[in-house]
Amino acid sequence: MSLLYVKAYYGPCNTFDSCKHKPHLLTGLRDRLQKIGFRIDLVPVPFVNYCMLEMCGHEVFRCNLRNLKFNMIPERDPTCMRAIDAVLSSSVKFRRARAILWFWTALDHQMFRRSEYAPKDYFASDIDVPVFRCNLKHMKFNTRPSRDKTCRNAIEAVMQSAVKFRRARAILWFWTALDHQMFRRSEYAPKDYFASDIDVPMTTCTDCEFCCKKILSEPVHP
Known about the structure:
Layout: E1 5-10, E2 13-15, E3 18-20, H1 27-36, E4 39-44, E5 50-55, E6 58-64, H2 78-110, H3 149-181, H4 205-216
Parallel strand pairs: 1-4
Antiparallel strand pairs: 1-5, 2-3, 5-6
Helix pairs in contact: 1-2
């Protein structure tokens, strides 16, 4: 589902001694979202004074339809502005969630697989960085490490260096994998969605009129 697709469910509004669907209450919201770049479909429902915005199958905003102003620009409609802010913030959150899910999927696929980007095993002959240095006269002859302070310091330096090398290796692998995978089209890369990818048909005036007649023919319970 596209992150720029919004469904607006609205019911009949009982104002001015009439109870019927009034899509003009959502004119400002629809025009502003379309101007920003969203695609919005108005879906009539049989619930009185009901208005709900849905993105990616999740509810992002709900209000009483009577709080929206009839055929008004968003700048003069506080409820409409709150709905627009909710859609924009939800779109950012959905993009962030998609990126995080892709990241963890890529890690789960790449972390423990042997490849040119996987962590490599290093041995003592491969490391030429000194990790400890001392005067040989400070070490005791043929003595256990528990009684030789310099020997204990050397052992601690080796253990700490091993941890640091593992951490550096993981960080280098991480950035190498990101540099290789982030902007490459693969099954784990974020996908681009266009209007042609959405299989939900657009709501037409004929469908809206048919739905309104069907709802008006049914008794409305208070």
